């Protein structure tokens, strides 16, 4: 699939013209209304998992409020009749500085899950970072995207053999980079999920990268059968969902094989590796030629360490506020890291971006590109692939308009001088 021509100005005009004939946008343009409509379309558990943060959710809140403390200073009488949103990133040219963050367990919000997101991203030339916790195998999503740009997010499990297998699969399907998520060696204290006592992985959801992997299947073969718990109605319904989530046909055949239960047990035992350290990164370099990007960097010293270890890029992220309550926000962390990096490697920002103006602010403070997560998931929940496409078009259009109205015609002109604090 090749990106279709996209004109931000035409998109804005089409919204108004469609409205004149009585046709409203398929997803709300306003972020707050988008979230409200998405919430109404999801189950309680799905919304808690997607929207929630850690603890009191102060990090979730500051990711947004700290953007609000930054102001754009428009400049006048500059010819912005032609604008160029394109960027170069890790040796590739992209039509805009927007990427899609990895979000797991998308089957909770739409049956087409990652496949629908991949098609929407490819249609606009927006790179999609495949989630390690996807609902569909990476090969299936890559096939749906055609020539669309894709990266792969890696959660470093306790099995290095599995890590190598994931990376090699990502390389084989044409991923442009490996994004190692560093901030989830343990699950954070996610109060909304805990209040519902619900974790989707225990139902076999969000583990498609694992069950489609030959190394993981071997690890399952070596796993012991779990002890039988007391039978309750909730246990039986959860077991049904677990069996249905496991790949293959024939509910009773899958149930009798015991593979769905073994998959969940094996996953929970190896999911993350809290012993991971800087020295382990050399293992990854030995198993892939792809650029390596570290996601979860918030301290300038860690950014400098990444350079020292030959890392190709970093993503400033606090996991959408889902890991450490009271953490520094992503936009607050950006200036110090950008100063320390000094342009040696690209910096991406993930967290709190809800509109084109936010994209502009992040670029002005030193980001090479920005990533979004929840907004496209909300579009997916409301209208599937078309909903994701619409959310992306809205973001790109607002960014394009913000560039022009701020008096810049190229990404290189977006600098700290464009802002007031």
Strand and helix layout:
Blueprint: H1 8-20, H2 31-41, H3 44-51, H4 58-68, E1 71-72, E2 87-89, E3 92-94, E4 98-100, H5 113-124, E5 128-130, H6 138-145, E6 150-154, H7 160-172, E7 178-181, H8 191-196, H9 208-211, H10 214-222, H11 233-245, H12 251-257, H13 259-270, H14 281-287, E8 292-297, H15 300-308, E9 313-317, H16 330-341, E10 347-350, H17 356-364, E11 369-372, H18 374-406, E12 419-420
Say which CATH homologous superfamily of the largest domain is assigned.
Aldolase class I
CATH class of the largest domain: Alpha Beta
| Total domain modules | 2
Helix content: 40-55%
Main sheet strand line-up: 4-11-10-9-8-7-6-5
Distance between the termini: 42 Å
Query: At CATH's second level, what is the architecture of the largest domain?
Result: Alpha-Beta Barrel
Strand proportion, as a percent range, falls in 5-15%
How many beta strands in the DSSP annotation?
12
Structural class: alpha/beta
Q: Outline, from the CA principal axes?
A: globular
